[in-house]
Amino acid sequence: MKTALCKFLQVCLLISLAFSALKAQTCSFTDLRLNSQAAVNSFSSSCKTISGDITVSGTDITDLSPLQNIETMNGKLTIQNNPALSSLNGLRNLATAQHLLIYYNDLLTDLTGLEKLKSIWGTTHIRYNKGLVNLKGLDSLVNANTFYITNNDSLKSLSGLGSLETVSDILAIGSNKSLASLNGLTKLNAVSRINIGENDALTDLSGLEKLTSVSYQMHVTYNKNLTSLNGLTSLNYLSEAYIGNNDRLPDLSGLENVRSVYWLVIGSNNSLTSLTGLHNLLSATNFIIRGNALLTDLSGLDGLTNVGWLQISDNPALTSLSGLGTGTNAGRTSANERVAALTLGGLVIRGNALLTSCSIAAVCDFVNTNTATISGNGAGCDSQAAVQVGCSALPVTLSRFTADAEAGTAILRWTTTEERDAAVFEVEHSLDARAWYKAGEQDATGESNAVVHYQWVHPTPANGQNYYRLKMKDLDGSYSYSQIASLRFDGKAPASVYPNPVSDVLIIENSKEIVLFRIINTEGRKVYEAARVPDAVPVKGLAAGSYQVQITRKNGLVQKQRIAIL
């Protein structure tokens, strides 16, 4: 009996000691303020888990080592206004925190001392630290919730964030005057919101190459030296994007993998001349293009098929809606316009003083059955009625345009369902979908309400990627473009002549099979002709410009190829 009682008392004592030890390791504070080095030194070394808030703020604080046993902060740790503090080494065991705020510590050059910190599930602020050069010390941080890195005047690099994979709410990188690169975010793949603004030295978004998803919003604004969005090339899920007031941004290169967005606002980018980068964008629920001083057309929006609501406003240099969609139901427009296979759910075209023609297919389809807001543009596009008048001249209706590889040649096929005053289809070829040249032409039927099929053969496609489009010309000189079709030839393409462009000697392939070889200038005049063709033809004496090579082979095949002489 006595033995059993003794054992029971021993167990109770052990439990009591364990509870006391646990209690000693967990410390609770309502708002503990350590305002001097002496106050820091008096901090209890037994505290491993903190429940509550701690603020470290004092003019003489230089050493945080008395805090070295803290492992978990279930509250807010604020380190601010410490002008003598040059290191966070005293926080070497901190592994998790609810909130971490680091403000106005001018001697901090990095965040060394936080190497064990893996997770901050609340708010992280690293702001107004004048001497901070990089973020080394956060090397173990994998997940964050709300993360602000702002107003650190000397911050040159985000190195130290190499383990960060996700930010569940917002990542804000702003007003860091010396930050020239986002390199350091080597594993960041998903954020809910990301704001990049007022970073004066930032020229592109390199460093975000692993970012695939922005589930809520992306703001890229007021970066006055930003010249490219390169770095976003892996981004394939983007809900909302606001790209504005980036004074040197010429285009939107870097957004090539974005297929759809909910909100997209492109505004007040004073050097923007092209929307290149959005050519794979298929749909946008809301799309606003406004206040871009140098934007003259909408090239880059070729792939758009659906926009729930489109606003094009206050672009003072805009003269054309060229580029707004190039799908299969293309129509005819005025001489400087392109066409759209695009469905619109709502439309505002307002305050574009030089825009005189809005009669592209997508706009015509909308204004003929719906009410649009159209005002303040040039004559011809200053009201819905004016646009409807312009639309009455439409269309040539192209229902299909395809390119197929057959026996080393590119076979282009297209179908029209209606033609009015159509003159000719010019076939244009490109190797990069930017620089185009005329590869050949096919006469149009001219007047037809029936289905008409066409075919044209390009016998000399290049090795690699080839792009084709139709320039559909009418009798009055107006024209429109089809959608782009592409083909890839992985083997050696049966090129007839090379190099192209050429400056000295043009090499002729399989010259023994040729019975007639001609070079014709843009006026249709022969500048070279031979029945017996050498393997190389000197072209140095010909004027620089564009020419057509015509080749007749023994089998009767007539090939035409456009070349450029430099």
From TrEMBL:
<keyword id="KW-0325">Glycoprotein</keyword>
<dbReference type="Pfam" id="PF01030">
    <property type="entry name" value="Recep_L_domain"/>
</dbReference>
<dbReference type="GO" id="GO:0030313">
    <property type="term" value="C:cell envelope"/>
</dbReference>
<dbReference type="InterPro" id="IPR032675">
    <property type="entry name" value="LRR_dom_sf"/>
</dbReference>
<keyword id="KW-0134">Cell wall</keyword>
<keyword id="KW-0732">Signal</keyword>
<dbReference type="InterPro" id="IPR036941">
    <property type="entry name" value="Rcpt_L-dom_sf"/>
</dbReference>
<feature type="domain" description="Receptor L-domain">
    <location>
        <begin position="47"/>
        <end position="96"/>
    </location>
</feature>
<dbReference type="Pfam" id="PF18962">
    <property type="entry name" value="Por_Secre_tail"/>
</dbReference>
<feature type="signal peptide">
    <location>
        <begin position="1"/>
        <end position="23"/>
    </location>
</feature>
<dbReference type="InterPro" id="IPR026444">
    <property type="entry name" value="Secre_tail"/>
</dbReference>
<protein>
    <submittedName>
        <fullName>Putative secreted protein (Por secretion system target)</fullName>
    </submittedName>
</protein>
<keyword id="KW-0964">Secreted</keyword>
<dbReference type="InterPro" id="IPR051648">
    <property type="entry name" value="CWI-Assembly_Regulator"/>
</dbReference>
<feature type="domain" description="Secretion system C-terminal sorting">
    <location>
        <begin position="497"/>
        <end position="561"/>
    </location>
</feature>
<dbReference type="InterPro" id="IPR000494">
    <property type="entry name" value="Rcpt_L-dom"/>
</dbReference>
